[in-house]
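For the sake of transparency, this paper describes our internal protein records without simplification. The tokens are whole numbers drawn from a learned vocabulary of local backbone shapes. One such record is reproduced below, unchanged from the form in which we store it.

. . .
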Amino acid sequence: MKEPKDMTNEELKQENARLIKIYNSSHDPWHHQCLNEHFEELEEIAAERGIEL
């Protein structure tokens, strides 16, 4: 898996959508916490690039 900083804008959007599906299907608080950390990283990179996820 690529690091988010190495992803294209389209890949960032696809990864965000993939993580949303995983988040919505999980009921484990620990899992949600880990995913939230990934969402924050994706959002930070998207903001730096001026795109919206």
